[in-house]
Amino acid sequence: MSARKPYVGGNWKMNLNGQQAVDLASALADGFSAGDQVQASVFPPFPYLEKVGKVFAAKNSPIQLGAQNFYHQPNGAYTGEVSLDMLKDVGASVMLVGHSERRHVLGETDTLINDKVLAALEAGLEVILCIGEKIEQREADKTDHINTGQLGYGLAGVSDAQMARVTIAYEPVWAIGTGKTATSQDAQNTHKVIRQALGFLYNDDIANAVRIQYGGSCKPSNAQELLAQTDIDGGLIGGAALKPEDFLAILQAAADNAPVPA
Ligand code: 13P
């Protein structure tokens, strides 16, 4: 067990309507009271950010509001895009960057992902940088190569001090939304490689401090075992984040694995 505070994020993706988003936020705010042991955030669709933020504020919840996406330019002729200032304005404090659906469905490149990481950090926000290999890359024995490559590209130019606001999410693409989870041992092995790579890119102190979340069909039935692994510091949850009882159970599993205060 490490001294890192576990961190669980709920990525709602392109799901729910406004009322469902409010109801989910309300149930999470009512059910989550372990904010001193576990960091928690949710990533609603853009149109519901403000409503969800209001629910958390009204209930004095420690759950942070996050955005699934943004554009790195401050303003201008970028039809359809949303800036960091706009997201800060509605209360978002953490940004998802490099999610596999944005890489592989929406075509985001490592260069764009790096621009976004740098812009969000320069704006004073927290970042969750997602990385992960596809099944054909795993089968070709390229898992570590792909993950360390995405890590290095994504973090290019990020300073030591800025790393305090960066979390890495390892999400094997073949495990996302498929019901297939990496075994806890496979996930641990990859998390360890990612942490070693952080040591090469930065130093041991930073490598030991950065949280590395696991994502990909994480659910209450496997969360406990995944979160008990030495280098797994939390989860980035998709499908199970849409059901309050499931997300709360995963938050509880994270609290159960939190370091005991000295
Ligand atoms: P699932 O938990 O639905 O597999 O999604 C994981 C994910 O992509 C979180 O960002």
Structure report:
This protein is an alpha/beta fold and 262 residues long. Helix content is 42%, strand content 14%. It has helices at residues 18-31, 49-58, 84-89, 100-104, 110-122, 135-139, 143-154, 184-201, 204-209, 220-227, 244-256, and strands at residues 7-11, 39-43, 64-67, 94-97, 126-131, 166-170, 212-214, 234-237. An 8-stranded parallel sheet has the order 7-6-5-4-3-2-1-8. α7 packs across α8 and α8 packs across α10 (220-227). It is globular. The two termini are 13 Å apart. 1,3-dihydroxyacetonephosphate is lined by residues 11, 99, 171, 176-177, 215-218, 236-240. Residues 11, 99, 171, 176-177, 215-218, 236-240 line the site of 1,3-dihydroxyacetonephosphate (13P).
List keywords for this structure.
alpha/beta; 8-stranded parallel β-sheet; 262 residues; binds 1,3-dihydroxyacetonephosphate; 8 strands
Shape: globular
What binds here, in terms of ligands, is: 1,3-dihydroxyacetonephosphate
Please give the oligomerization state of what you see. Answer: single chain
Radius of gyration: 17 Å
Helix tally?
11
Cα distance spanning the termini: 13 Å
Tell me the structural class: alpha/beta
Strand order of the largest sheet: 7-6-5-4-3-2-1-8
The average pLDDT score comes to 96
Biggest sheet record: 8 strands, parallel
Query: Could you spell the SSE succession in H and E letters?
Result: EHEHEHEHHEHHEHHEHEH
Give the fraction of residues assigned to helices: 40-55%
